[in-house]
Amino acid sequence: MTSIPRHLACLLLVLSLPASAAETVRLCFEAQDVRPWRTEQGGGLNFELLKMVGQRLDVRFDFQSIPWKRCLAQLKDNAVDGAFAVSYKPDRRELGEYPGGERPDAGKRMHTDTYMVLRRKGSRVDWDGKRFRNLDGAVGFQLGYSVGDVLRAQRVEVDEGSQRADELARKLIAGRLAAAAVGGSDAATLMRGPLAPRLELLPIPIVEKPYFLILSHAMLAQRPQLAQRIWDEIETTRNGAAYRKLEQAQGVRH
Q1: pTM across the whole model
Q2: Which residues, 6 or more positions from 156, have their beta carbon under 8 angstroms from its beta carbon?
């Protein structure tokens, strides 16, 4: 019986092995639409960006849509590998890690967004970029959102009892809030919707922030090189022509 040369036998063995599967990274995100960045059904620019990143790195992202507080809790428990899109708060580093650590690298952000002030039509509440004026009640914001820290630093009464931007708008219209601090994308959506005739959007943002993919401590400990490759590729892809074209189609300006 003719023997197979050793080098050929090794080659045949390699060829007979199944192709290596793409690495899986489990990510959670907030279970509500925040256009143009994301929808509960997995649409929007955040998903387009991560899809491109996954294709370039041969990574399969497994997305889970859940309430925001639970998403962050799962991140802390290492039940997911990451969460998006997360603005920076120092205490959130107990839950997971940002690209760049305690001084997050804004170049590796997924996107930038603002928080804006909504008031009832005809209200005298104002925001001049530094402080509120004519505030006769609480300022509402969504449960777990980082703008709460900004509002508390203003020493104003706050209401964190709403999960969604439209809930805040209805409480505002009903007179249960004096004003609402709402993400810029959500504010724009509300001002195009059926509640818009009863609302006013103030022109000066409360704050503008970068939003990141934050990765779990277990992910950083077990797959540090992959974590860094993902963050690096987010920056490269976000600055690339293909993604910029998608942003332009959605009216996103830089």
Answers
A1: 0.81
A2: 132, 135, 138, 139
